[in-house]
Amino acid sequence: MFLNEFHRIDADKTLISPQQASNFAKLVADDFNPIHDPDAKRFCVPGDLLFSLVLSKYGLSQKMCFTFAGMVGKDVPLNFPESDAQRITITDDNGKEYMHIDRKGEVSKNMEMIERFVRSYVAFSGQTFPHILVPLMAEHNVMINPARPLIMYESMSVDLKTVDIKTPELVLDNTTLNVNGKRGDAAVIFSVKCGNEIVGKGVKKLVLSGLREYDKRLIDEVVISYSENKKRFRAS
Fold it and tell me: In 3D, which of 115, 103, 108, 197 has the Cα closest to residue 156?
């Protein structure tokens, strides 16, 4: 599968180098969040890469929920247990938990189909900032801290009519944001389509920290910086 270049296996452990994580974020997800840059002080592996590795290991189930329990740092050896259980937990060698996977229903391990689904979801997910979140923050008159922008991936769930999806396409349905002081809980709700048929629904949940009153000039500067980071990478 195409994910081989974004991780390595060593003694049954899955390891993701900062460069591999950064390459996945930029080349596959079109995600230029600086937290995924190899030299970032608060570097973490993209949640969408962990999601993709889970599907390649365990297959795609009709109902799946991925809950993030911790941020994966540089070269953390991850344990993806051999299991057919309905709940699977990804841990490191110290027992620290990073992701819980709950699943039900029919399962497909068709790697060609799974790759199409992974690419469709990750491409959709990578557009969360700025295309989805900036208008949502403006609507609620709040924004993240421009000096220390922090958006955390909390969970993703999907409920499919079938796992035989030959041409998956994800389409945005709705967004919500609940603000509680400096914290915001955002939900990105989407449909999964195959041709003209809706074959499933899903939701991606995020936590926004350090919220303050919306300032268009400041958030525009954040978006410009994000876009310039993307341009520099593509130029190189």
Answer: 103
Q: What per-residue confidence (pLDDT) applies to 7?
A: 96
Question: Angle at which helices 111-125 and 47-58 pack, to 10 degrees?
Answer: 170
Amino acid at 21: A
**Residues 124-139: tens digit of each pLDDT:** 998 999 999 999 999 9
Residue whose pair of structure tokens reads 């993806």 in the numeric block? 80
Residues, the chain: 236
Q: Is the pTM of this model over 0.90?
A: yes
Q: What residues does 97 pair with on adjacent strands? A: 91
| pLDDT confidence bin for 33, thresholds 50/70/90 | confident
Buried (b) or exposed (e) across 85-109, using 16+ Cβ within 10 A? eeebbbbbeeeeebbebebeeeebe
